[in-house]
Amino acid sequence: MSSIEWKGIFPAITTKFTAADELDLPLFERNLQAQLAAGIDGIVLGGSLGEASTLTTAEKETLTKFTVEKVAGKIPVVLNIAEGSTKEAIKQANLAQEWGAQGLMLLPPMRYKTDEQETAIWFKTIAAATSLPIMVYNNPVDYKIEVTLDIFAQLQEFPNIQAVKESTRDVSNVTRLVNRFGDRFKILCGVDTLALEELMLGAHGWVGGLVAAFPAETVAVYRLAKAGRMKEALEIYRWFLPLLELDLHPKLVQYIKLAEAATGLGSEHVRAPRLTLTGAEREKVLHVIHTALAQRPALPDYLSL
């Protein structure tokens, strides 16, 4: 079984589309290269921000193979699995391995709200069916199913369940996980507006959203925090917060893609039923982005940390 060093910055990268609603691989690569240059540590494909629910299996295959080829072993490529049935989740996990992905981000079942036993068995069954390392995505706010500490206690026996994307919105959960399991599960913050707080509490990394448009600032916050340079990390983070709050909205895809367009790293094209922003809503989000760009901080040499 392969392993991933689940630490650092893992962008939940957006999927780029053309005006004709096809995958825009040249634009995707432009963003990917900016992420690599900024010093990211891994990448998550086809997450919520990647418009997973609208991608075909063929598109996931294209994206995964393309990304694996372009990163050329520099960082691990992780594919998100968000399915309604255990059978389909196992199929997607096996395809991910065939396509060259090095790890999986695994959500609880979609659509049906499983109880504690069903949730535990879901994760165990899929983990037993793949040798790929798994990061459990724990987001009861958006997906209505909590992966409790008691469930994690059961998941310990699976060596390929290695990490958790912590999105409960309760920063204390980082401490609860550490107190109960020590270093058994690597913890990556999944909520942009709580990232520095959770890194200070011992989280190992950050699965970011606004990193899609601001890769250098995101990596800088992480590296400065881990180097103990909290004053500098906090200064960047305070500037960053109005942007990070764009990650907490049902239209996070449109908001973050607008930010990517503003920084030259993407376009506003989204896949229906999502619609691109218009009118007052678009102006409001642009105001947040342009205000931040006008005050964008100079970064220290964080890559040498």
TrEMBL record:
<protein>
    <submittedName>
        <fullName>4-hydroxy-tetrahydrodipicolinate synthase</fullName>
    </submittedName>
</protein>
<feature type="active site" description="Schiff-base intermediate with substrate">
    <location>
        <position position="165"/>
    </location>
</feature>
<comment type="similarity">
    <text>Belongs to the DapA family.</text>
</comment>
<keyword id="KW-0456">Lyase</keyword>
<feature type="binding site">
    <location>
        <position position="207"/>
    </location>
    <ligand>
        <name>pyruvate</name>
    </ligand>
</feature>
<dbReference type="InterPro" id="IPR013785">
    <property type="entry name" value="Aldolase_TIM"/>
</dbReference>
<feature type="active site" description="Proton donor/acceptor">
    <location>
        <position position="137"/>
    </location>
</feature>
<dbReference type="Pfam" id="PF00701">
    <property type="entry name" value="DHDPS"/>
</dbReference>
<dbReference type="InterPro" id="IPR002220">
    <property type="entry name" value="DapA-like"/>
</dbReference>
<dbReference type="GO" id="GO:0008840">
    <property type="term" value="F:4-hydroxy-tetrahydrodipicolinate synthase activity"/>
</dbReference>
